[in-house]
Amino acid sequence: xxxxxxxxxxxxxxxxxxxxxxxxxxxxxxxxxxxxxxxxxxxxxxxxxxxxxxxxxxxxxxxxxxxxxxxxxxxxxxxxxxxxxxxxxxxxxxxxxxxxxxxxxxxxxxxxxxxxxxxxxxxxxxxxxxxxxxxxxxxxxxxxxxxxxxxxxxxxxxxxxxxxxxxxxxxxxxxxxxxxxxxxxxxxxxxxxxxxxxxxxxxxxxxxxxxxxxxxxxxxxxxxxxxxxxxxxxxxxxxxxxxxxxxxxxxxxxxxxxxxxxxxxxxxxxxxxxxxxxxxxxxxxxxxxxxxxxxxxxxxxxxxxxxxxxxxxxxxxxxxxxxxxxxxxxxxxxxxxxxxxxxxxxxxxxxxxxxxxxxxxxxxxxxxxxx
Length: 371
Ligand SMILES: Cc1cc2nc3c(=O)[nH]c(=O)nc-3n(C[C@H](O)[C@H](O)[C@H](O)COP(=O)(O)OP(=O)(O)OC[C@H]3O[C@@H](n4cnc5c(N)ncnc54)[C@H](O)[C@@H]3O)c2cc1C
What we know:
The chain is an alpha+beta fold. The protein has ten helices and 20 strands. The chain has helices at 13-24, 49-58, 61-66, 104-118, 162-167, 233-240, 246-249, 297-314, 318-347, 356-368; strands spanning 5-9, 28-33, 44-47, 69-71, 73-77, 83-88, 99-103, 121-124, 128-134, 137-142, 147-150, 152-155, 175-187, 195-198, 204-208, 213-221, 262-270, 276-277, 280-282, 288-289. It has an eight-stranded mixed beta sheet with strand order 6-5-14-15-16-13-17-20, with helices on both faces. A six-stranded mixed beta sheet has the order 8-2-1-12-19-18. A three-stranded antiparallel beta sheet has the order 3-7-4. Strand 14 (195-198) and strand 15 form a beta hairpin. Flavin-adenine dinucleotide is lined by residues 9-15, 32-35, 45-47, 127, 156-158, 162, 181, 264, 284-286, 292, 295-299, 301.
């Protein structure tokens, strides 16, 4: 299938990784990204050893690590702020850290530069207007009036994927979990050199990032999924921090700019059946979006991209590749989606309390297995 001409819909974390992995195998890759400004919000993301291994496989690990902050364990605190455990994380690549905290914009910069340098053609401010199977090809019409035929189309268009909706009219829709996450960047104090995770009914933590920054996250119950207008976000986040332990609550008074607060309601989805229809296949959040309690959503999208590229290289026909890809990915993604959601449900009192240190240890074992 090396001659295949591939369209990727969505130039986010999963789509860009797929572009790099496919170009390295010689496929012709075009991408369309709906957002004309390709904007990425300014807080960070936690990534673990499986992502560092993935970046090494892509040949971009040094650039990636340089853009973030590496650390080798997670410090777990009680809800009152007492240090409970130092959970070591497995390293999977010699000479590189076990975890990275990285700004979303910094990660986007690394992936987008590498995708372009690898030869992917990326069109911004463009989406698909129709996708039609035509024999062995897919005919795609775009919002800018262009049209073209492809051998394979990859829907990497995130949680609210329109590609998923087009492929599977009866697919489940993303579901709100009852929680939301509040985030804000700060200059990193010297003592924050690992993820500081606070257990309890409200998950919260501090995550070191590159560039002398860290971000604070706070997971809160949000019954009824309220809409928070931008004006007033800083005050809302400050009030949510009222009952935080002193080491976290100390940051509240510095949250004054509404534009610097990032609030997201948490949603999840896992497609139980096929992840493809005809010559169109889905990856990342489009097919399995998780809550962030285990910090693995983007990690799963990145791994999907590499596995899909490997299977497309190996297969004689797209469908053979798509079936092998889903078989390699489903259980791992299901583990992350279900175990992350269980932590959130336990924080909401819907399940018995989850031992966060144990859950983190177990997750490290799972993600260390080969993809
Ligand atoms: C609060 C929160 C915290 C998180 N923290 C972490 C973390 O610490 N670690 C971690 O690994 N993961 C984390 N995640 C999850 C992570 O952000 C996602 O899993 C990851 O972004 C999925 O990548 P993706 O490429 O599938 O989708 P996205 O990153 O959402 O990219 C989709 C892209 O497609 C574009 N697009 C959408 N529709 C169209 C269309 N019709 N046509 C063209 N383009 C389109 C979008 O503009 C976007 O650029 C977190 C998520 C949340 C909500």
